[in-house]
Specification:
41% strand; 15 strands; mainly beta
Length: 228
């Protein structure tokens, strides 16, 4: 039989007052609703320009989509971008967990129990990142991208993060780590930092292997391009 591959443009530049859309993510809720989200960027569309997070939903396995709507408004937080929006689908508690950052200096958590229709008020979880400071005195933080995972046995939520000791708008030099929650997102803890064998690793994906261990798939941003 012949495989049919179809595409749709869900977010198109220069629409809805946004210059461009970058850093997309997609997930399927426990009730089989598909959530597609992305950074909606103003100005020149750079990492440090004003950015909102917008979302579209599909209730028919991606055949049709609702209208894009803003789920995080940068103006609620101050001058700077909302960025690195990530989801963790939680079939145990029937929710979708959402983590994002503001201005590469603060991190927030919220969740949706109704398939992305509504969200809880964002909770500041920057203290989790401050726990890294004794080991790595970061000036820039980011989460993901674009998804975290829930471990099968324990239900633990795990999501990769990266931190940079840059005190400017640069993203390097940087290191990778994870943060995790054992109480369905109420509190978050820091994990161990990844050894700096290959420098400047970031934007990591996590996957749980058959034996219950977690594999991190990381990219490096300087020198020979490789996956780690």
């Amino acid at each position: 039989s012949k495989m049919i591959f179809e595409t749709q443009d869900l977010f198109v530049k220069n629409t809805d007052d946004y210059t461009m859309y970058r850093i997309p993510g997609i997930c399927v809720t426990p009730n089989d609703v598909v959530l597609a989200h992305t950074e909606a960027r103003f100005g020149h569309g750079g990492d440090w320009d004003a950015i909102d997070i917008v979302m579209r939903r599909s209730f028919d396995n991606c055949k049709t989509w609702d209208k894009a709507r803003k789920i995080v408004d940068h103006s609620d937080f101050g001058e700077g971008p909302i960025h690195n929006c990530n989801t963790i689908v939680d079939p145990i508690n029937k929710v979708v967990h959402i983590l994002f950052c503001f201005n590469y200096a603060r991190a927030f958590y919220m969740q949706s129990a109704d398939d992305g229709e509504t969200f809880t008020q964002p909770v500041d979880i920057t203290a989790t990142f401050k726990a890294f400071r004794d080991e790595y005195d970061w000036g820039v933080i980011a989460i993901g991208l674009p998804n975290g995972i829930q471990l099968r046995e324990s239900g633990r939520l795990v999501i990769p993060v990266w931190l940079s000791i840059s005190k400017t708008t640069a993203h390097r030099p940087n290191r990778c780590a994870t943060i995790y929650s054992d109480d369905a997102g109420v509190t978050w803890n820091r994990g161990e930092m990844i050894p700096d064998v290959v420098p400047n690793l970031n934007e990591t994906d996590a996957v749980e292997l058959e034996d219950g261990s977690v594999l991190l798939n990381m990219r490096n941003g300087v020198g020979v391009q490789r996956r780690v």
